Task: inverse folding
């Protein structure tokens, strides 16, 4: 991957729908060259795909993070339980005082409360702490 590929990926991260002709103009390259670079980045797994990032009006209105500590060897069961909960958006393993960071989204406080209860009741969960997201000050995710 060279500097041109990095610039190309940066432009695509800003807006994956940018026409190849526009990208070519920005990069000072031929359209076919840019398309070949995109194809090569896809083949090599540098670009895993193109996705939609929902605007604020389409996102669930209440977002939260749960910090979850798990009993030894209970992680597979806890992960299966988390996977069954539709409000669970993403789960990360961590190092440190907690084992999992669970990203949640719910339409109502009641739905969020019920989901947090289901997490806390899961066999193998030692403890959990929830953090309600109030506002987003910076979001660089694509």
Result:
């Amino acid at each position: 991957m060279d500097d041109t590929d990095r610039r190309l990926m940066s432009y695509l991260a800003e807006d994956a729908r940018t026409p190849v002709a526009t990208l070519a103009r920005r990069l000072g390259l031929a359209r076919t060259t840019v398309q070949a670079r995109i194809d090569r980045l896809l083949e090599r797994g540098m670009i895993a795909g193109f996705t939609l990032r929902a605007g604020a009006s389409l996102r669930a209105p209440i977002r939260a993070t749960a910090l979850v500590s798990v009993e030894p060897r209970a992680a597979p069961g806890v992960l299966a339980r988390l996977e069954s909960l539709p409000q669970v958006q993403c789960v990360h393993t961590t190092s440190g005082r907690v084992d999992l960071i669970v990203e949640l989204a719910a339409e109502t406080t009641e739905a969020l409360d019920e989901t947090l209860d289901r997490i806390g009741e899961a066999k193998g969960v030692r403890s959990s702490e929830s953090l309600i997201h109030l506002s987003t000050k910076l979001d660089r995710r694509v």
